[in-house]
Amino acid sequence: MATLLGSEFSSSGRKRRNCNSNIVTKLTSSKITGEGFSRGTQLPGGLLQERDKPAKWHGIPDLLQKLHESSHPNSDLSHAHGYLKSLSSQLSVEAMSFVTEDRTKAQESTFPNTYTFDLFGGVDLLVEILMRPTLTMQKKKPKMNDELVKDCLSVLYNCCICTEGVTKSLAARDDFVLFLFTLMTNKKTFLQTATLIEDILGVKKEMIQLEGIPNLSGLVQSFDQQQLANFCRILSVTISEPDIGNDDKHTLLAKNAQQKRNASPSRAEVNQVTLLNIPGFIERLCKLATRKVSEATGANFLQELEDWYTWLDNALVLDALMQMATEEAEQSSTESSDESSLATSPLRHRLPQSMKTVHEIMYKVEVLYVLCVLLMGRQRNQVHKMLAEFRLIPGLNNLFDKLIWRKYTASNHVVHGQNENCDCSPEISFKIQFLRLLQSFSDHHENKYLLLNNQELNELSAISMKANIPEVEALVNTDRSLVCDGKKGLLTRLLTVMKREPPDSSFRFWQARAVESFLRGATSYADQMFLLKRGLLEHILLCIIDSGCTSRDVLQSYFDLLGELMKFNIDAFKRFNKYVNTPEKFQAFLTQINSSLVDSNMLVRCIVLSLDRFESQTEDVKVMEVLSECCLLSYVARVENRLSFLFRLINIINVQTLTQENVSCLNTSLVILMLARRKAKLPFYLNALREKEYTEKYPGCLLNNFHNLLRFWQRHYLNKDKDSTCLENSSCIPFSYWKETVSVLLGSDRTSRCAIVSYIDEPFMDLDRDLLED
């Protein structure tokens, strides 16, 4: 034993004070090096018992040794189960403490029992016991007791949440991860298995490949609706691209480089295809997302909901409670048995009827997230077709008032950021996922008209007829049997709650994004007028000018929405001028625009494009009247103001800091210059940029930066069909003219008055020559 433990006495005869510490050190070392004893159960039982009390191990090593001895192949596992239950009772207390006290980090000092269990090989032993049936050579595999399997899984999960490193070590074992999926076929062990898998996949370095799961299609088809909803929690990890977590990695420069390195589809994309190939999968998700909930009503309902989601923010606890209620319901048909069972449980809490509603909401959050990710993937059109066929949108419309946006105001409304993974209540998560789904569904897709009902579709047709313009082809082709039912469509319902939202509500961001996505793409006058008639423009201006809103995210979403709503629409500019009817209001509006051009540049682009079109319609009396009266159009018509926008747009970005969020600044600056080129004023603008440089005493800086940005633009957009289509549709400028203008600006002929190089003096030429070099 000396090689592992060291002698009990030193050479001078003094007894070692840290014998138990030595055991721990050696066990820890063996885990790292693989040398020495592989687990604590190999130590003499007498030694473990002797050191147990001084080391405060609470008999865990001794119990593990007995568990090991009683769990050999072909042995009666009833004794093993008894030892495991004794261990589980000690560990579950620490796990519940972790859940209820909202601890952020597992520490040995906080959870000593779980730490001791893992140190002495408990985790490895349980994995061994679980997987033992798969190692037998017998044709008929031995079946383990369901309760034993459940307890093994529960203890493993407790170790994962309370002991640092356990989850990662389990995630590294691909054989065990795939084996866990086979346990999901058993309804009695499904919940514990799903919860453990979710935890493991969350830390796994490499994303699991769903096609590697044995008989995945049969497994998914065997799930009932509740199991399928739970399975969506697992799927969300397997179909989402991993978050890199470093802002520098999110730059377009880095993303383009990564795309070159990884030309083949990612694992997440492959997993999406695997899911779509499972018969009936999308149809069942649509049914889950749209099924109705029998919810309790009454004065105390809202307070119950607040109280319970404050405590039950852990899916494991919530599902465990629901499972207890379900099992009790199977034994007795009375509601009182549910409550008496829970009243005598260790949690000492009653399960209110409203918990069923929260449970259903949490399920729908996961289902909507999976559908949203699939909608944004490469198989978008296939997914769109199925969601329309299975009437997802009409189903959500029927749930809107009763579940999605019930008419109440939470007492402690949490204002949170736009991150879809934010740690917030089920109610808030549900609303955000719903809005994100609408945004993905409507964005640049003809199925967006399914958000309306038949009466509203007729209204669009009437608007087009009155304006003497043809109906949009997508509207004509809409299958009216798949649109919303009832008096209002989903878009109209969303507008109603949007206008009622408190000024500081974080939902404003997502609501504006969802409505904006309906307008994005080729500009539709009828779509704009449909929303203008419902007071959307006035609501947006109220939020920007009068509500005191300071959130940059919300303001950006409202600026973007306002741009899509007003673009090329003379009636919208007339309404704007009617609302912004004083110099003070107009100045307040300009202040908001100028406070962050990254946020407002899409609106600036809309105004510039609209002004250019209106100036070509001089024969239209209505247009000329608005042109002469509208303060916003008059402001942008002044060259000095357009130049001011151009200076700042170029100055606030560079190639290294370009992201999907701010690349629009580059495109807006290009729009200003393309329109100038059309009127043969491009040299004037370029010369103004040069003069600005010298005024600021930074010759060459602005123009070299712009030159580098345009070089990047060529590499980025000439290889991305979707982006180029979006640019063309949103500006009504052919993409060929975009490319041609960029080529002219990047021309190498220093005698050309339209080439940037001719405005940069030789000493200041190519300050960042190697910036884009491979």
TrEMBL record:
Protein name, entry field: Transient receptor potential cation channel, subfamily C, member 4 associated protein a
Source organism phylogeny: Eukaryota, Metazoa, Chordata, Craniata, Vertebrata
A GO molecular function held by the record: phosphatase binding
GO annotation, cellular component aspect: Cul4A-RING E3 ubiquitin ligase complex
PANTHER family recorded: SHORT TRANSIENT RECEPTOR POTENTIAL CHANNEL 4-ASSOCIATED PROTEIN, TRANSIENT RECEPTOR POTENTIAL CHANNEL 4-ASSOCIATED PROTEIN TCPC4AP
Alphabetical list of InterPro entries matching this protein: ARM-type_fold, TRPC4AP
Domain of life of the organism encoding this protein: Eukaryota
GO term, biological process aspect, one: ubiquitin-dependent protein catabolic process
